[in-house]
Amino acid sequence: MSRSVTAFSELLSYFTKGELPLTIQYSDQHQFSKSNDDLPDSLLQQFIFPNLDFEVDEFTEFLPCIQFESVKGVHTLILWTARLMRYSFYLLNFDEQGRFLHLQEIAGFYSEDDQLINKMAHIDVTGHIYILEGTLDESHHEVNPVHTKKWMLEFLPDGTLRKSEVNLEL
Prior knowledge:
By secondary structure, this protein is of the alpha+beta class. It has three helices and ten strands. 16% of the residues lie in helices and 48% in strands. Strands 1, 2, 3, 4, 5, 6, 7, 8, 9 and 10 form a ten-stranded mixed β-sheet that branches.
């Protein structure tokens, strides 16, 4: 077994095996922090940092959450990240040898243009991911339905995701 495959197996060992259907939302981080250990820097450097769509700084935190098989031969990992005013769950797909395939933010809580945004994801048994993103009202207790978006992600055989918008009926 190559060194890279051995390291990838080690990476997988930090992610609890999950079963579908599955819902991921902002508050789930607390449950994962109770049961999962932090990823070692060597694994973050090798598998996570090179594939992120943002810059990591000394304040960025990571927590492994869950893993599941999305399509044959593809390992799907859910990783929680904390950055300044942005808490996110990212989905990362890797092939069986640990080669990166795809990254997608699927849930979280963050500030953008003076608005607070709450995003949650539901992954059904067929592997479709439904994402609902809402802007909180001025009291920060209720989601404003006027600014709510919904879309679906579909796993493709090559491990990438196809995004399509879903119409909301309010």
